[in-house]
Design a protein that fits this description.
The chain has helices at 6-14, 29-43, 63-71, 92-103, 123-131, 145-155, 162-172, 176-190, 198-204, 208-221, 225-237, 242-264, 269-276, 280-292, 295-314, 319-333, and strands at residues 2-4, 21-26, 53-57, 80-85, 109-115, 133-137, 159-160, 195-196. By secondary structure, it is an alpha/beta fold. The strands form 2 sheets. A 6-stranded parallel beta sheet has the order 1-6-2-5-4-3, sandwiched between helices. A two-stranded parallel sheet has the order 7-8. The longest helix is centred in the C-terminal third of the chain and has 23 residues, at 242-264. The relative contact order is 0.09.
Amino acid sequence: MSSVDSKLLAQQLDRGQIASLYFLHGEETFMVDESLEKIKEKVLTGGAADFNYSVFYASDADVESICDAVETLPMMSQRRLVIVKQAQDLSASELERLTVLVEKPVESTCLVLVASKADMRKKFFKLFESKGVMVKFQKPFENQLNPWITYIAKKYSKELSPEAAELLKESVGSNLTDINNELCKAAQYVGERSRIEVDDIRATVSRIRVHTVFELVNCMGNGDCANSFTHLAHLLDSGQNEVGVLAMIIRHFRILMLCQEALREGLSQAQIASRVGVHGFFVKEYIDQARKQDFKQLIQIYDVLLDTDRALKSNPLSSHLWLENLVLQACRQATPESTSPKVSY
């Protein structure tokens, strides 16, 4: 059939276009879970839903049991639903056994495979794409988060003020599962009140991500290697991967450089917020930090960041080592003998 995105999948399901085969893959588990619930809602429409619904985990499932479940006729319903999670753990021989079900799909069963990744070079996945529907779920970019935040808030019958939404994004990042968890806490905190404000987010959401980035950049700018490693570890422990951490650091230093240029031009806080693309609620923190950094030093560290980005993309298996090397080089650039006096604005 085809490869589609999550939006098109939802539209097809709403129109009653239900395929016999689905392969959902990607790191964005919130989107995967939402799609699974949508498929379950549309497939199990008749009676005896429990008798027509089977879930397996590939790591401990018997592939013959999966095949038996798929080939069993539904009870008092048009379709059965069989979900196989962690499908990336299926061995080559198990995929070969399942190939029969892909070549000739069982029309009375909807088979859904769920995996964190898929090697599209393999024969099985090429065949699956030609016979079924494949959906890849990618983490949204930061500029795509607002609609998702609005959607998730509505699930809890809430809305967010623009400032609260910005604070949530800056605090949590782009992981929709984390956003959902934090909005759940905030919704419980506000009770019957329908609108979530900044103070509600402050009261319920951990700002480890924001604080650690600011602290890491400060330590790197001051040549404090030991504490830089500590804050880097905190970022990684909070669920960010190496590529995500590097992107956050690059963005942060870019904003600091833009803030310094704007300060030299005498722009107001509101004008700076508009230029650098940071909500006015946060721009003061960036301005305060930019005042403390030396511009020449920032350029040197930014060059190191870009070199690290190129190296990481060419050799992703050594990403952790590249980040550690980044910290060492940045701190070396920021030693007292390599910096010029701070500039006052």
